[in-house]
Amino acid sequence: MYVPRSFEETRAEALHGLIRAYPFATVVARSAAGLDANHLPLELVDGSLHGHVARGNELARLDGAEVLAIFRGAQGYVSPNWYPSKHETGHEVPTWNYAVAHVHGHLKVVEDAAWLRALLDRLTGRHEASEPQPWRVDDAPADHVEKLLRAIVGIEIAVERIEGKFKLSQNHPERNRLGVIAGLRRRGGDGDAALAGWMAERETPAP
């Protein structure tokens, strides 16, 4: 990934925060047919990514393979009209702001039913937490759960390296950055508020 120095993010807390906030990843691996990409939610647990796939998925046959998991956070188009400097010089051009984390590691296929069940309990517990009556795995008939568990395998990716690129107008002066935040909030499109929030956090001085 091309990462200019001004956009490089190396802080573990920031990278882990993106992964937890945007857990739906693209997992890229090389199979017999070439590069293979799959899209699935992953959970960060003690330095590893945990998830599951159907037994028919190519990933279930790639134990030990080198993989890349891509997590994409907030993103959005930036109009040059949002920069105060554009109205003075006319030199600014459109761009796209975004935050991504690339996790490199090797894949381990997990067949352990107890491991899988614990993973499903954690995932549903997390993603159902905002529901008035959260659904639990135990809500499904036990024989149905057992059948589904036999149809999937777990995957574990030990995190060997993380690359972070948070392109949030750091290469612009403060007034332009604040102009982008205001523009995003005014536009109010899908994801604009989240992107403005990520930028605003970086405008707040650390205590």
Automatic annotation (TrEMBL):
Family annotation (Gene3D superfamilies): Electron Transport, Fmn-binding Protein, Chain A
Pfam family, one: FMN_bind_2
Domain of life (superkingdom): Bacteria
InterPro entries membership: Split_barrel_FMN-bd, TR_PAI2-type
PANTHER family: PROTEASE SYNTHASE AND SPORULATION PROTEIN PAI 2
Protein name as catalogued: PaiB family negative transcriptional regulator
Species, as recorded: Fulvimonas soli
